[in-house]
Amino acid sequence: MTLIEHFEELRKRLFIALAAWVVGSSVAFVFRFMILDWLKEPLPASMTLNYFSVLEPFTVSMQIAAFFGVVLASPVIIGQVWGFVAPGLYAEERRYALPFVLFGVLAFVAGAAFAYYVVLPFTIPVLLGFLGSEAVGLLSIGRYIATILMLMGMFGLMFEMPVVGFLFARIGLVTHAGLVKSRRWAIVGGMALAAVITPTGDPFNLALVAIPLIALFEVTVVVVRFSQRSIRDAREGTEPSSTY
Predict the structure, then answer these.
(1) Whole-model pTM?
(2) Burial level of 244, CB count in 10 A (0-12/13-18/19+)?
């Protein structure tokens, strides 16, 4: 394929992914009240959410629709990513298309669920309890939803690490040896990122984020090693069906 053909292919796949996101967002918008009730559950029972501007209910609705639209459209979006890189893969490697899409979706959902069911129930009470009974909380629904969705999105992306590692190993961007060599830096970076995500100051909440990050890196190392071994086996037995 020529460079122009690659750009045309990319444009087509971006359009399909965008269309899937719009459809998914429309569905999420219809069910936004049910989703909002679910997102409010990590809050203490005595806390209520309030809005402080005319546009805030609308922006919150759009945030919910946009985020869960991505979740609903993720099979199509990840499928388009694989479809774009597939022409440069060996025929034997293309059989990983369905597992790549499936595990990509499951990884994002697992990360978002981990944030919601594990991290938030511990983090929110700590954050709200810093001043004790000296102040009464009046939460903005816009800021609360933005924070919740940001954390769920970040954990969803972090849980994609092994899936992305598999893809990058396939196209030659990462190697097992390179990841092993950078393990120390990855651990330090994971601790720093955990400190940014959970600025509560207590080691328990820090560990809730840091331990999964480090574990995900180690899983990625194993996945990349497996991917490289599969690449060697495929190249010994077949030739690529097409080249860039």
Answers:
(1) 0.78
(2) exposed
